Amino acid sequence: MDEKNIVEEQNIIPEEKPVTPSVDTALLARWVRVLFWLIIASLLISFLTGETISETMPVVAAAAQIANILVVAFYGFVLLKMSAEAIRYRGAAICHFISAAFSLALFPISADVENPLVVIAALLAVVIDMIGEYYEYMGHTDVLVDVDRELSGKWFKLWKWYLITFLGIFAGTILTVLIALLGMLVMLVCTIGTLIVSILKVVYIYKMANVLKKA
After folding, report:
1. pLDDT value at position 109?
2. C-alpha span between 104 and 91 (Å, rounded)
3. pTM, two decimal places
4. Above 50 in pLDDT, residue 151?
5. Residue of 65, 63, 73, 134 lying closest to 99 (CA atoms)
6. Is 212 exposed, middle or buried (0-12, 13-18, 19+ CB in 10 A)?
């Protein structure tokens, strides 16, 4: 009697072989952990570039702006290293490099909010950041498909929420001109939503680093 018949007669279900990840989890785990700390650094730096610090300690604010440009550029470098495992990371890396280049080029006049170049650059930066976030989230989704499907799906859903809040703020800005109270309400809700998305990104990055390390 062959092995197949023995299994069927004894009602034994053969154990499924574990799926071997198609990506280099060790490499990704190392770089994703770096992304986590870069995000934390960016959040800390953002407090030093606020309006209050800019007015009271302009030198500190200027140094923080330079530090932020370096963080953005290095974040792009890390994503570029990760692109060996998912091509979409390359698009995210390019967006970060462009954003860093814009910020560096306009640094001398960045304080002049009435300068048309600053306004145009700010608008372009928003669009570039959105595209960069899309490629990064989709990159995370791709590399986690056969490592942790649930977390992979969460990254995809997070992109949807990111897009919804982004478009909501844009719509709220326009709506404020027509119906001020309603527009401000929409912007407030979407701003809170953006904050939640940002927090979830940090949480997912942390979880992702641990999942990849254990894979």
Report:
1. 67
2. 20
3. 0.84
4. yes
5. 73
6. buried
